[in-house]
């Protein structure tokens, strides 16, 4: 049971081993996830919604993510720790470098950022400076003001082609992993086939190389928002928090989650 490394992620994809990822914000849950064999932990800026009670991720600061990353790092030894660059912390390469340095100092092994376009330059800038980067495409919650809400992305042919093109571009720019959020199953499958780096889906169908869920969603905690289709309450079948995490890991590895009812056709 050695700790995960960045190169081991691409090995897992090549071997067809599904990657199990959950968001986490503190040491206690991190310990439980480590013990349950979760491969990757994401200190997501979703903390702004599930912990801080905001109705978007936009108010989250670098200090906030640093704080939670430090907490999670105390509890997790084996999982690879990924931390989100919050809104506008990646607006320029220099800002992204400063914020990423702090996230790595807090215990992260990889930073995640949303989008392509001008972010390609940011990805290259970080990767050239030895900072592993996870990209995030499809529904990018930091785009909520432009999008006007949280909706499935890449539904029509031209939108799908754009996401597919962006996915190739972030991989080309040096991203080591790609989160695909709320895109049709067929699009996520095509992108997964295009790339050598692993794709991690959330509302992106069963054919991604791994799956991620927000901890609170896994535990059936009501956010006050409408529950998205891709969410499953694993506490109901797991019987305990540790059981819920184990049930999720098992369901991802056996391909039972996500089912058609959790995906977009
Ligand atoms: O912040 C977060 O929780 C995320 C996941 C939904 C991928 O970015
Ligand atoms: Na996020």
From TrEMBL:
One Pfam family, short name: Pantoate_transf
EC numbers on record: 2.1.2.11
Domain of life: Bacteria
Cofactor needs: Mg(2+)
Pathway linked to the protein: Cofactor biosynthesis; (R)-pantothenate biosynthesis; (R)-pantoate from 3-methyl-2-oxobutanoate: step 1/2
GO molecular function: 3-methyl-2-oxobutanoate hydroxymethyltransferase activity; magnesium ion binding; methyltransferase activity
Main localization (coarse): cytoplasm
Family: Belongs to the PanB family.
Name of the featured protein: 3-methyl-2-oxobutanoate hydroxymethyltransferase
